[in-house]
UniProtKB/TrEMBL annotation:
Compositional bias of kind Basic and acidic residues: 756-766
UniProt keywords, alphabetically: Repeat
Protein name listed in UniProt: RHS-related protein
Origin species: Leifsonia xyli subsp. xyli (strain CTCB07)
DUF6531 domain residues: 73-145
Amino acid sequence: MRGWTLMSGMRSGRVRSRGVFEAVGTGGGVVTVSDTSIGAALASVGLDIFRDDFTIGPFSALGTPPTNGFADDPVNTATGNFLEPETDLPFSGGAASLACTRMYNSLDARVGVFGVGWSSVFDVRLTLDEEGAGFVMADGRQVCFPRQGAGWDRGTGENFWLAEEPAGTLPLRREAAGAALVVRNNAGGWWAFSLAGVWLGSGNGPGTTVRVLREESGRVSGLVHEWGRSLTVEYAGDRVASVSASDGRRLEYLYDDERRLVGVQDAVGTRSYRWNSQGLVDRVVSAAGVVECENAYDDTGRVIQQVTAFGRTVRFAYLRGRVTSVSDDDGTRANTWVSDAKGRVVGVIDADGNRQSMAYDRHGNLVPVTERDGQTTVHAVDDRGRRTRTVTAEGADVVYGYDEHDRVTTVVTASGGTVEYAYASEGDRNPCRVTDPGGVVTELSWEEGVLTRVTDPLGATTRYEYGPHGELVTTIDPLGRAVTKQFDDLGNVSAVTLPDGDAWGTPMTRSPGCERSPTRPADWRRDYNATGQLAVTVDPTGVRTENTRVEQSDGSAELIGYDPCGRPVEVLDAEGGLTRILRDRAGRVIQVTTPAGRITRYGIRRFAYDEAGQLTATTTGLGGLTRYEYDTRGRMVRVTDPAGGVTTRTYTPLDKVATSTDPLGRTTAAEYDAAGRQVSQTDPDGVTTEWEHDAAGLVCALRVAGRLVSRIDRDPRSRTATITDHTHPGGDPVTHTLRYNRHDRLVERTTGGQRTRWEYDPDGHRTGMLAPGGDRTDYRHDTTGRVIEIARTGFGSVQYEYDADGRMLRAQAGDLLQTWEYRAGHPIRHTRITPDSAHTTTIARDEDDRITGIHRPDTRTDYRYNDACQLTAATTSSPGATTRATWTYDTAGRLIAETRDHSTRTHEYDAAGQLLTSTAGPQRTTFAYDGAGRRTHTTTGTRTTTGDRSTHYQWGDTGHLTGITEHTSDTTRKTRLWVNALGELAEVDGTASVWDTASPIPALTTFGETSVLHAPGGLTGLDGTWITPDWRDTHRQRR
C-alpha cells in the first residue's frame, strides 16, 4: 500500500492539486484555501502533494514537546492533537515543584488514573522491554531509550539519559538500598525509578525533591515535598476520586457512566468537560461558566474546527506535505504551519506571506531561526544539547560555558565582557558567587533551594528567613530592619509587620502621646472577570475603578546599547537621535551627551549612602554638607542643610507625610482618607485647606477655613468639567466650562460668556485656536510634529526652519528675520535682521557648557564660576568703559554679598533660608513673612530711620497674591490682583486677561483690549507688532 501511494504521486498535477481542497473539506459550497497554504503544500516536496507519514515514535508527539507547533487552545499543528493542560493544586515558595498536574490528549487512547485520554503526575512511569525503555511523563509524552549493550542509549531525539545508579545517592530522604533507574536531562532535572520502572521521586537540585508514596497495590497514594507540603490521593475503583493538599485545599473528580472525567469540583465551582459521540472531549467550561473552547474532530481524532473563548471560529486544514492551515472558518487570516517528518515545526507563514523558519539537530535542539523579516539567529550546542553560542542577526555573539553538572559557569556577552558563576557544592543549582564584567562580586547563600543571604559588592547584606514550608517569612535589610509576614492555612499572606512594629491586618490608629488603639479597618476589594483578570478595584472609601488595557498605536521604539556590564550607554530614539551615557568604573553616570550634542557632566556633587543604599549625605563643590536621616521603615524623617537648619517629618501608618516642620519650627500638617488621598492640610498659621472627592475619587471641591473656594462637576459622557469659582473679589461666583475630545485634549473653554476653542489634527498636534474676540491662530507642522508656521489675525505669519536634530535655524516674522548657529548642542551665534539693521550675538562656553562670554557688536561680557557652578564674576567692556560685578555665597549656596564696581550689598537669612535683610551702605531693606513662608512686607530705609519706603503683600485663601500696596513718604499705590480657581492671573486692577489654557505652559492671549501672541523663537506680539527678542529670549522659548 505504501508503495502504491508513492507511485500515485506520478499522476497528473490536476488530480493531485484537487487533493489539497479535499483535505480542507468535502461539504457543499465554496471551499477557500489561502494561496500560502496551497503553495506550501505543493512546494513541500516539489509537486508531490500526498501527506507524508510522520516518523514519530510511540506517544512521543503527545503532551508538549518543545519542538512542536501549537495553535489556539492548544492544538498540535502537526498531528491535530487537542491538549488540555491542567494544574489543580499548585504550591508556591520553596514547595513550588509540587503540584497536581494532568493533561488531556485527544489522540491518546491510553487509560490513566483520570480515565481515557488523561495523563497525570500520578501516571509517571518507566516502561521496560527487550528493545529499550520508555519514560512516560506527566503530560503523556514518552521518551524512548534504545538498548545499548547492558544499558541504554540517549533518548531518541531528546536531551534525556537513562542509567542505573546507587539508590542511596538520591535525595529521597528515606533509607534506600540497591540500585535505581534514573532519568536525567541537561538542566539538572532527575526522575528516579525502581528496577521495575516504578516512579520513586524527582527533583532539580536542593529543596526541590518530591517523594512518591504508594499503596500496597502500587497505586500512588500521595506526593511529599521535602519542605513538608504534600498531596493525598483517594480512589474510587481505578479512578482518582479526590486529591487533598496539606494546606486544606481539596478537589473532587466526577465521572460519567463510562468512567470518563466530566468535572473537577472545588470550593469555587465545577470545571467541566463534555464528551462527543467519538469519545473525545469537545467542550471545556471553566468553573465561572466560560466556555473556553469547543472542538470538532475528523474521523482520525484530529481537531478540524475550534470555537475559542472569544467566540472566534478557527479551522484546521491538514494538507499534503505535512502542511497545516489555521484560519478563520472562511479561509481568511490563515497562518500556515509546516512540519518535518518528526512532527517538529520547521516553518510558520503568517497571513501576509511572511515566513519564520526553524531547523534542528538530530537531538531536537534548535539551531538556526530565520525570522519573518529574513534575519537569522544561529545557535551552537554541545554533545549534551546545551547551548554554547548564539549569533544574532545583528552580529551579537554570546558564548556560554558549563561545568560537568550542566551548570552555567561563564557567559561572554556580545560586547566581550565575561560574567562568571561559582557554586558552593556539586549538588547546588544556584550560584553562590556572581562576578560581572567589571570584576564586581555579588555573593549569595542558599539553603534547601531558597535564597537566605545576598551580599552586594559593597558588603551590605540582606537576609531572608523562611517558614517550615519554604514560604518567605522575614526579610532583613543591611541595617537590621525586618519585615515579617504571617500566612493563613492556605498559604495566603494574612498579616505584615513592618520594622517599627506597625502591622497590616491589625487595625489601629496612632496619635502623639497615646498608645495604639483599634479602629475600623481600611479594606480594599478587587473583583476579577470570568477569565481571571483584574476587572474592578474598590478602595476603602467606596471609589470603584474599572481596569482597561491601554496600547501604543504609533509603533515607535527605541534602541538601547549596553556596556559589558549590561548598563545602558547609548539610546537611539524613534527619530534617530542618539544619546550617549559615559560612566565611571563604579558604574555611575558622569556624562550625558544628547542627540543635539549638548553635554552634561556629573561629579561636582558628592553623595554618601548607608548599607541599605539610602542617601545619607550630599556635599557640594564648595563643601556644603546636607545630611539625611531615616526611621526604621526607611522613611526620611530629618534633613539638616549646610547652614544647620533642620527640617523634620512624621508619617501616617500608610507612609504618607503627616507633618513637616521647617527650621523655624513652623509645622504643616496633613490628613488623609482610608484610600490614602489627602483630604486636608493645615498651615503654620492654623488655616486649614480641605479637599472633597467625588464617587470616582477625583477632587470635586476645595474649601479654605471652612469657606467653599471652588467646586468641580464632571460629565464623562459629554467630556466636560464645570468649575464653579468663588474666588472673585466681588463675591459673585464665576463658571468655567472645559470640554475635551476623546483623546483628553482641551477643545473648548467658556468663562463668563467668553469662549476659546482649539483644533487638532489626527496626530494630536494643534492646528488652530479661536480666541474670545474672534482672533484666530493657525498652526502648521512638519512630519515630525514641529511647528513650521503660525498665522494670527492682525499679526501675519511666522515661518520656521529646523536642522536634522530639531534645532531652530531660522524664524521669519514679517520684516524680522532671526537665524541661529550651534555647536555641541548649544547656540553659539544669533543674528537678528530688520530692514534697518543687522545685530549678531555670539556666545562662548567652557568645557562644562557654562557661558563664559556674550559678545555683542558694542559690548563684551565675560563670566566666571566657582566649583559649585555658581556665577561669581561678570566683567562688561564697551568702548571707553568697563564695569565689574562679583557675587559671594555661603556653604548653603545662598547669595550673601554682591559688588558692582565699588558698591557692595550684603544679605542675611534666617534658619529657613528666607532673606531677612539686604544692606548697601547706609541703606537697609528688611523682609517679613507669614507662617506659610510667604513674604508679607518689605521696608527700606537707612540705619537710623524706620523706613522711607515699604511694600505690603496680601495673600488670598488659595495662597495666591491678591494685592500689593506700596508706600513712600508722600504717596500710596495699590494694585489689586485676582487669581482664579484655575490658577490663572485673571485680573489686574480690574483689567481682564485671557489665557491659552490648552498649552502645556499657559500663555497670555489677551490683556484688556490688547491682543498678545507668544510664538517659538522668543517672539512676542502685542496688537500686531512684534517685540524684538534677544538671543536669551529665543533660546529660552525654544527649550
